[in-house]
Write a structure and sequence with these properties.
By secondary structure, this protein is of the alpha+beta class. It is 49% helix and 18% strand. A hairpin with a 6-residue loop joins strand 5 and strand 6. The mean pLDDT is 91. The structure holds (R)-mevalonate. (R)-mevalonate binds next to helix 10 and helix 14.
């Protein structure tokens, strides 16, 4: 990894208030002041103008919370990862997992070249036409060049073509591989497919049904690995010193996800809690990344776990590999100040580095979920975040929120009625103040 910024946020970041956090972000990471303004208010005229440049009939923003998962060590370099998510415990869980994994040496990661596939589907292609097309891939490769813009000059471009007939519809499918470098690539891929289509029709004698990229991204993958010694795992919350026992249970939980698709999908949803939050923070196409992940999980005809956790000697070893079509330039990622802020925080990574970070984050998120599922259970952590929201909905504001939430947690009663009763008590001075 050469294209990152190794500076990270100071410890204790999460204990600061949001304006102080933003100030620390700017000082610690050298984030531009403009980006700070854009993420802090959401009501600025300039922001509304940007929104209308991005979507039709814009009326503003749906402000999904943006936070930072702190303390990732990936290939020896520290990262603080921006995450946009509406789910309360996700960022805390990622940070907690990152800290434990860092104690075991952190993540090692890798990524493939950023090769994507664009597809043409043609009607009325004879067997001879199909063969002819298969023989002419170099001609297609040359003809596609003008539609690739500056990609070849940047080291990307045409990487090959394959043809096949779909058995049920008899449609001819032409798949063209293109290295899209640091872009997500959707525009380049769609432009290239449409641009080269007349030649493909001419060679094959067929007629275009449609041209569009494939979101499968099976050739564009990120991978991460970590090894957590039992001695470290034993110190994790809920492990009670029994690192070996926790490791065995996490391994077993992963085998269950692999065996039973109805559990596997929840296990993988947890992985995507991390990856999609990074995708959203960097204005990448979450739907594309999610769709590709689930197709990959079912690539051998059965839906399986995206991660593997197994005991090796005196450690728990986790691995993940999946398609990750993250773009770091072009598209919305480069357009909006909020996504530029997120990329800034990561030290302006190229797309392969972003895929490595995403893979590490997905593995961390999955580890955090499994750790709590096989030890104390998930609800304890969830309720910690749920209680303040109930307190807020009951009318608590400012210092009242923490006081009411902590009283609810102590009483293990999270009903709205209880929140209102406790709020009334607090206002009458019958409940201690908290922070
Ligand atoms: C919740 O958003 C994610 C989990 O359900 C993941 C899992 O079950 O592995 C906790």
């Amino acid at each position: 990894m050469h294209d990152h910024n190794p500076k990270t946020l100071p410890d204790g970041f999460r204990k600061l208030d949001p304006p102080t956090r933003r100030e620390r972000l700017r000082v610690a990471l050298g984030i531009e002041a403009a980006a700070d303004e854009f993420t802090s208010t959401g009501s600025d005229d300039a922001l509304v103008e940007l929104s209308s440049l991005m979507v039709e009939s814009s009326i503003g923003y749906a402000p999904v919370p943006l936070g930072v998962a702190h303390g990732f060590l990936i290939d020896g370099v520290g990262f603080d990862i921006p995450m946009a998510t509406e789910e309360p415990s996700v960022i805390a869980a990622a940070s907690y997992a990152a800290r434990i994994i860092a104690k075991g040496g952190g993540f090692t990661s890798r990524a493939t070249e950023p090769v994507m596939v664009t597809q043409l589907f043609l009607e009325g292609v004879s067997d001879e036409g199909l063969e002819q097309l298969a023989d002419e891939s170099l001609r297609v490769g040359a003809a596609i060049q003008p539609f690739l813009g500056s990609l070849p000059a940047r080291g990307g471009g045409f990487r090959g073509m394959s043809v096949e007939r779909l058995p049920q519809t008899a449609i001819a499918k032409v798949s063209i591989s293109i290295d899209v470098r640091d872009a997500m690539g959707a525009n380049i891929l769609n432009t290239a497919a449409e641009g080269v289509c007349p030649l493909i029709e001419e060679i094959s004698g067929g007629k275009r049904l449609m041209c569009i990229l494939s979101n499968a991204a099976t050739d564009r993958r990120g991978a991460a690995r970590c090894s957590i010694p039992f001695s470290v795992l034993g110190g994790a919350a809920g492990s009670n010193g029994d690192g070996a026992g926790t490791a065995r249970r996490i391994e077993l939980a992963t085998r269950v996800a692999d065996e039973d698709p109805s559990r596997g999908i929840t296990h993988n949803k947890g992985v995507m809690n991390g990856i999609s939050a990074l995708a959203l923070a960097t204005f990448n196409d979450c739907r594309s990344i999610e769709a590709a992940a689930h197709l990959w999980a079912a690539r051998d005809g059965r839906y399986r776990s995206l991660t593997s956790w197994r005991v090796e000697g005196e450690a728990l070893v986790g691995e993940i590999e999946l398609p990750l079509s993250f773009g770091a330039v072009g598209g919305a990622a480069a357009f909006h100040p909020a996504s530029r802020l997120a990329l800034d925080m990561l030290g302006h990574p190229g797309a392969p580095t972003l895929a490595r970070i995403a893979a590490s984050l997905g593995l961390a998120q999955n580890f955090a979920a499994l750790l709590s599922l096989v030890t104390g259970g998930i609800q304890k952590g969830h309720m910690r975040y749920h209680a303040p929201r109930i307190a807020y909905m009951a009318g608590a504001r400012g210092a009242e929120i923490a006081a009411v939430a902590q009283a609810m947690t102590a009483e293990k009663n999270f009903s709205m009625h209880e929140a209102r009763t406790l709020l009334a008590s607090y206002r009458e001075g019958r409940l201690p103040a908290r922070n």
